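[audit] Reproducing an earlier prediction to check determinism. Same input, same settings, fresh worker. If the tokens differ from the archived copy the diff job will pick it up downstream; this log only records the rerun itself.
[audit] input (119 residues):
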Amino acid sequence: MSGEWMVAFGCALGCGVLTAWGVGGGTLLLLVMTLVLGIEQQTAQGINLLFFLPSAAMALWMHHRQGFVHVPTLKTAIPWGVVGAVAGAWLATGIDTELLRRPFGIYLLVAGVMMLVRK
């Protein structure tokens, strides 16, 4: 038991450091939780969302303070984002974990190829 929290802490610390360097921390956190720590996909996605929401709120506030937020677009996007998030969460609770992993894996592969092609 004592070593388990150290592995989890080390993984979270590593993801945090890589995120600070500009690597997608949320994606890394999902991969670490599912592949290294053996956490179920839905649980890992929920934990990832809990990590993301405060960071996103702070980033939005800072960008707004600097004048980088187009408020009319934000007012349009927020309701649709909430609807999409609720619908996605509802769908994810009823889908088998293996069915969630495949599209996510494909998404990661496509995103990686796109990053390589663009550079």
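[audit] rerun output stored. Observation attached for the diff report: The mean pLDDT is 83.
[audit] end
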